[in-house]
Amino acid sequence: MGGGVKVTDENLRVYIGYNMKRAFNVIQADLNTALKPLGLRMITFSALAIIVGNPGLRPSDLASALSIERANLVMILSELEDEGLLSRSRSATDRRAQSLSATAAGLALYHKARKAVCAHDDRMIAAMDADELKSLRKALQQIEELTRDPAQHHTG
Amino acid sequence: MGGGVKVTDENLRVYIGYNMKRAFNVIQADLNTALKPLGLRMITFSALAIIVGNPGLRPSDLASALSIERANLVMILSELEDEGLLSRSRSATDRRAQSLSATAAGLALYHKARKAVCAHDDRMIAAMDADELKSLRKALQQIEELTRDPAQHHTG
DNA sequence: TATTGTTATACTCTATAACTATA
DNA sequence: TATAGTTATAGAGTATAACAATA
Predict the structure, then answer these.
(1) Distance between the alpha carbon (CA) of A155 and the C1' atom of D4, Å
(2) How far from A143 is each of B45, B78, B92, B135, CA to CA, in Å?
(3) Hey, are the CB atoms on A136 and B136 less than 8 Å from each other?
(4) Which residues, listed in sequence order, are joined to residue B98 by a DSSP beta bridge?
(5) Each residue of B22-56: pLDDT tens digit?
(6) Where are the alpha helices (DSSP H) in chain A?
(7) pTM for the complete prediction?
(8) In whole angstroms, what is the distance from residue B117 CA to residue B121 CA?
């Protein structure tokens, strides 16, 4: 791992989660640095991207798509709204809900940020071939889906 | 992704980092739940595992192995020490440094926790074959190593 | 009753600067 | 001067409970 510390195969065996934590940490820190000049963070960019691709969706559904709690999405949306990137309006069909859509400024910033994020992604996966990238995506999806399969969850 | 939200391939294209975040989140929450009855967390287990495998190592090297800052390791080690799992002593060769080793109780708890963590890991990678697992490990390592290669870092 | 958006709160993880004691 | 351990602090991310408005 680092610092000349010997890590046996036996120890390494159990470190899938920790390897993932470290890899994600690299990605998060690096991507946030790339997005900072645009006034975005990883989470705000992700929210904006999904809203752009799904105009009119509700905060509840967006939270689900982002795998975060509704409560934690509120300030993220307020942040985007305060910057004039996002418009929140009442849903026509359900007065409890809101309808989210990107403003012209939000759409423009999204396209600009998307270039930076794509360039960043290219660096992250630069050393992988197509099969490896496919495996990575599949593995990540499979792990995510364990949450939705109670039979394989917390049973060991 | 979730909640019936349409995510186009074009949007998905930039989400390696966010997929990883969500996958790691599943792993972290799940593993912490599994370790809680043993009085451990993911990070404390990882620290204990590396100490068991590398008796006498210094906190500085452990922090490097765990990819966390020395400052953030202090309380983790104090926590393990307070629970009688770990012993901190002065290094014989460098009086600034400490020498870390697991106590008998620490070793016993490690072996117990390791079983739980291995079982957990098995569930996480249950749906992957050997090649996919190899690809996943390789991909995670490659991403981690980007931090140590300034030439490919923050240049886009 | 249940759901939507919201507020408030607490806990963890992370990053940084500064201190002390040693080297 | 540089390094090891430490303290303190600030910022994100996350989880939970509770509330008003609406269904």
Answers:
(1) 43
(2) 21, 32, 45, 15
(3) yes
(4) B90
(5) 888 888 888 998 999 999 999 999 999 999 999 99
(6) 9-12, 16-35, 42-53, 59-66, 70-82, 104-124, 130-145
(7) 0.86
(8) 6
